[in-house]
Write a structure and sequence with these properties.
Largest sheet: 4 strands, mixed
CATH topology of the largest domain: 60s Ribosomal Protein L30, Chain: A
Strand content: 5-15%
Helix content: 55-70%
Number of strands: 4
Number of helices: 4
Strand order of the largest sheet: 1-4-2-3
Order of helices and strands: HEHEHEHE
Number of domains: 2
Length: about 170
């Protein structure tokens, strides 16, 4: 009889252990399924966010390409014109989204001395740089250089040619 009670205890213990394993297994499966569903939802949200970020970056790149990389100035001036401000703003929006370094090249028309035009080209490049820095672009990402009248894009004398040469060109590095 003593032998039967030990056997009963053993059977009862094995049955209890089997029941615990079976019950805990379904909870773990449900938890695993819930965790997998949550991970899939997070991955889908992350991919959607990446797609939105890529689309926004593409829109910013297109806007910057439409306004061009050249900012024009009035005669003997280093003040940004309203058209130049709009173009620079498009590039600022793009620069906020990437880590690209840029070079700003200042140019002038042929009027004035070589030394004066080098200084004016530098003031123009610095004017664009200062505006970018004031709008949150790190100055460490911007290099400025002046070519003065040395690299004209339009040759000849006349206001139309001179106007094309009074510029700052933004170039990626």
């Amino acid at each position: 009889m003593k032998h039967l009670s030990t056997a009963s205890k053993t059977v009862a213990l094995l049955f209890s252990a089997a029941l615990l394993v079976a019950c805990s297994g379904s909870d773990t499966k449900e938890q695993d399924e819930a965790a997998a569903a949550a991970a899939a939802a997070a991955a889908a949200a992350h991919s959607a966010q990446q797609a939105e970020d890529a689309a926004q970056l593409a829109r910013l790149e297109e806007a910057a390409a439409q306004v061009g990389n050249v900012f024009y100035f009035e005669y003997d001036s280093s003040t940004l014109t309203p058209e130049a401000l709009n173009a620079v703003n498009a590039h600022i929006a793009l620069l906020h989204r990437n880590t690209e370094n840029i070079r700003l090249e200042g140019h002038t028309d042929e009027r004035g001395t070589r030394e004066y035009n080098m200084a004016l080209g530098e003031r123009r490049a610095n004017s664009v740089r200062d505006y970018m820095v004031a709008n949150g672009i790190s100055s460490m990402r911007i290099e400025t250089i002046s070519y003065g009248e040395e690299r004209p894009v339009a040759y000849g004398s006349g206001e139309a040619n001179w106007a094309e040469n009074r510029r700052v060109e933004l170039k990626p590095q």
